[in-house]
Amino acid sequence: EAQVTQNPRYLITVTGKKLTVTCSQNMNHEYMSWYRQDPGLGLRQIYYSMNVEVTDKGDVPEGYKVSRKEKRNFPLILESPSPNQTSLYFCASSLSSSGGKGGETQYFGPGTRLLVL
Amino acid sequence: AQSVTQLGSHVSVSEGALVLLRCNYSSSVPPYLFWYVQYPNQGLQLLLKYTTGATLVKGINGFEAEFKKSETSFHLTKPSAHMSDAAEYFCAVSKGTYKYIFGTGTRLKVLA
Q: What is residue B54's predicted lDDT score, i.e. its pLDDT?
């Protein structure tokens, strides 16, 4: 089954304790992206990756890191989580259209709910 | 900068009534436009999208949207609401880059 998987689905942690949220897709998609969803703010893009070893910042990258060493995986790293990073996180992937036109359909994972105390 | 405005964070309609969810965008060039739906405790899934060509776009589950460049709008409609349409709906734009901007969402409630 074609899908985007995220782990863990739920996570409670404390301020300053490094954590990684994994994202994996089995559709051979070049493009992957991370979003956070907060009430009243919708989804905001954190980072995205156009292909292996190619990443760029979205609108809210502060406090996050990413890496894209393999095509299928795109982990999100919080080096020193803070309470304002409490949120619902989504990973998404899509094919990469020629010229990076951005008109492709994104396929979303089920989400990771993070609580930072 | 691009932005997306969804009017009405909550919309209620009766079962069988018309669904109209509004989306306006700001962009200096025609963007790519999307509507995604999020059912409770799930990720988002695409309803429909406009990239080029016909401005009236048909999607899944009987939804459609019309791209109106002069009004910078991409409103989502469905002629007859069903209980299963209750969800949160997000409008999104991409302007020829890999960046996506989502609206703040509209939660649709369908009344029996």
A: 86
